[in-house]
Amino acid sequence: MQDEFFATGHESCRDSSLPDGRMAFDSVFSAAYEELRRLASTVRRRDPGATLSPTTLVNEAWLKLSKSPAVGSTSPLHFKRIAARAMRQVLVTAARRRTAYNSSAGPVMFVTLDDSIADATSCDGQLLALDAALEELARMNPRQALMVESRFFGGLEASEMTSLLGVSEATILRDWRAARAWLALQLGAPSGSAPGKASGNV
Amino acid sequence: MDSYRWDRIQALFHAAADLPAQEQLSALQAECSDQSLIDQVLAMLAQDSRAADLLDAGVERLADRILSAPAEPTATLRNIGPWQIGRVLGEGGMGVVFLATREDLGSVAAIKILRDAWISPSRRERFALEQRMLASLDHPNIARLLDANTLTDGTPFFVMEYVEGLPLDKHCDSQGCYPPAAGTVQVSVRRSQVRPRPGCHPPRS
């Protein structure tokens, strides 16, 4: 799975300033993923009432990881972009596990470690639908998908996205508006109408 | 949908997006004769004019619900081989450590499982490195590695000696000292005291 993952969606965000883009991305991604996981669990344990904001977690992860050799050579902006991808993955993994467990406790769920059967099922469904729609968007226009991911999961500002993607803020806003309308349409599609292959995507 | 069609849809969408609603249809029909494209753009324009709960609110609320599941083993992970899985002893970004017992031998151990093993090769590599280092060390102050394998889905784990005691941060709290900064933990063994296990190479420094 991770091979597809690195072969497709990550092309656009490899850091060409690093000697081996893929290796560097992998190690930064892993570090970010682990730190986000750890932060989410410690924040929740210390203060069950705290709201887990991905934007805050990503910022905290940067404060912590920027001192490490693997991550230190990455710019804060690139780190945020990679961390946005890691954040998406953290959430999707958790949602998938719970969904799989709810449908049947098959062998896939043998390693369900950290999920209780909470009333989060509808959130899981929404997140997984968004994830699928973003993958479709990445095939239609990789830059737009990257932009939505960075903004939504990493909390990047429009000004940060202009530096990251090398386009004007007007283009960012335009791209966002169309992507938002299309994504909202995909998410709002009634489940019975099988959006995707059968009808919804035109 | 292919990129070309998406570009067409976006161009039509932007051409009509800022027009009054009653003029949008005729503007689209003037630009394009493909009814399926027009329908798609009209549906997007309808979304454009209303609030989108999820997309506008950001991921906070979803993340909060999704990540708030408590870190306890569920009924799905009851045993690994002969080991019965008990409570969570600790967890970090990389993995989770469970207390495990073997009824036939009456022994207790700690089992560490790599969480989300598929996420990247470097995670698996670091986990394997930790395992190899532990296997090569033999000292009373270092928990011994007892076994290692993978679960049916390929998730790696290893079984190690269970040592009772407080977690480092709690120990420091109770002793009134500060926990050491990450990466500076001093293990109170002398290198000369650590004997490689028979058949193992000594750890490289």
Overview features:
heterodimer; A: 202 residues; mainly alpha; 9 helices; 68% helix; 0% strand; globular; disordered N terminus; disordered C terminus; B: 205 residues; alpha+beta; Phosphorylase Kinase, domain 1; 2 domains; six-stranded antiparallel beta sheet; 7 helices; 38% helix
Architecture overview:
The complex is a heterodimer of chains A (202) and B (205). With 202 residues, chain A is mostly helical. Chain A has helices spanning 2-7, 21-46, 54-65, 69-72, 76-103, 121-140, 142-154, 158-165, 169-188. In chain A, helix 2 (21-46) packs across helix 5, helix 6 runs antiparallel to helix 7 and helix 7 crosses helix 9. Chain A is globular and about 40 Å long. Chain B has helices spanning 3-17, 21-31, 35-48, 53-57, 60-67, 121-136, 168-175, and strands at residues 79-80, 83-91, 95-102, 107-114, 145-150, 156-161. Chain B has 2 domains: 3-67, no CATH class; 79-193, Phosphorylase Kinase, domain 1, CATH 3.30.200. In chain B, strands 1-2-3-4-6-5 form a 6-stranded antiparallel β-sheet, with helices on one face. Chain B has 205 residues and is α+β, with helices and mostly antiparallel strands. Classes of the chains: A mainly alpha (202), B alpha+beta (205).
